[in-house]
Amino acid sequence: MNKDNAQRKTVIDALLTNETINWQEVLSTVISAFDCTTGTIHFLDEKSGLLKVQAHQGIPPFLIPKLSEIPIGKGMAGIAAERREAVEMCNLQTDNSGVARPAAKETKVEGSIAAPMMLHGTLYGTLGIGKPVPYDFTKEEVSDLLTIGEKISAVISG
User: Fold this and answer.
1) Torsion angle of alpha carbons 75, 63, 39, 43, nearest 10°?
2) CATH topology (fold) of 5-156
3) Does the pLDDT of residue 121 top 50, yes or no?
4) In terms of pTM, does the model score above 0.85?
5) Which strands form 50-57's sheet, in the order they lie side by side?
6) Of 124, 154, 127, the residue nearest 141 (C-alpha)
7) What are the boundaries of each domain within the chain?
8) pLDDT for the residue 3
9) In the predicted model, what is the mean pLDDT of the chain?
10) What is the distance between the alpha carbons of residues 92 and 127, in angstroms, rounded to a whole number?
11) Which of 6-15, 34-43, 74-83, 129-138 has the lowest mean pLDDT?
12) Is the pLDDT of residue 1 over 80?
């Protein structure tokens, strides 16, 4: 996170202690904290085994149906969930690895990261953010994103 790191962590923590969590507000705060423009929060649906979108920002409307349910192992979020580790791309627009789905390029995002939301070894979902420019997230930023994912997991695990 940038220079307002501690302040933003405090804001995110406060949002997660509300009786009713506004996931859109949590996502917007995370996106802002990392100086990003787009993002998604997906929760793992135990019954279907799919990642289901809980909040999104900056995603073109025609892509919403494609990211509403994501199988484990598909796309950045699905691969982050499968590997149980953050998956990052410096420039999604020029990536040829096959990790990002072809439609992902329509977001116009370049630097992007998807992190698993885990607590005590259990997967609860994924948190993804992106920038409109090529970008490599620092180790500290990856660690902060994973920590936020743990905090979200603690809330949704009850």
Assistant:
1) -60
2) Beta-Lactamase (3.30.450)
3) yes
4) yes
5) 69-71, 50-57, 38-44, 122-130, 112-119, 87-89
6) 127
7) 5-156
8) 45
9) 87
10) 16
11) 6-15
12) no
Average confidence (pLDDT) over 85-109 = 66
CA torsion through residues 93, 147, 149, 37, sign = negative
Residue type, 121: G
The dihedral through the CA atoms of 54, 121, 110, 96 has a sign that is: negative
CA distance 19 to 55: 18
Residues 117, 107: contact at Cβ < 8 Å?
Answer: no
Pair 120, 89: CB distance under 8 Å = no
Q: How far apart are CA 12 and CA 27, in angstroms?
A: 9
Q: Which helix (H) or strand (E) holds 12?
A: helix 5-15
19-57: b (≥16 Cβ within 10 Å) or e:
eebebeebbbbbbbbbebbbbbbbbbeeeeebbebbbbb
Mean pLDDT (whole number) for 24-43 = 95
Token pair in block for residue 152 = 């979200």
